[in-house]
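JOB MANIFEST
job_type = single_chain_structure
chain_count = 1
residues = 106
[input]
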Amino acid sequence: MSADLLTRETEIDLTLLEPEPVPFRWRDYAACRDMPVDDFYPHRTAVAWEEEAKFWCKRCLVRTECLDDALRVESHEQVWGIRGGLNENERKPLVAKAKREVRETR
């Protein structure tokens, strides 16, 4: 067996030994992660459920990521409830602005 062949057979792809990057999952850090989902969607009187949900959003470390996710999804479909500290009516101008900016860059 030649030395060249032996070298090729024993080469190790070192990239296989590197750990795969773990994606940041903002939901794992959300203040609401252990709360009932219903607390963030209208099922009680509007003022009561909205104030309670926004209370938690104000203290959330990943509020921006949550809002970004809602705006990304809302550019294609309606998202209800409190997301990123805002209700759907409060998010509408942000969605409209984002859509305008996309159109202007085309």
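[summary]
The first helix runs from residue 3 to 10.
Residues 50 and 82 are 7 Å apart (CA to CA).
exit_status = 0
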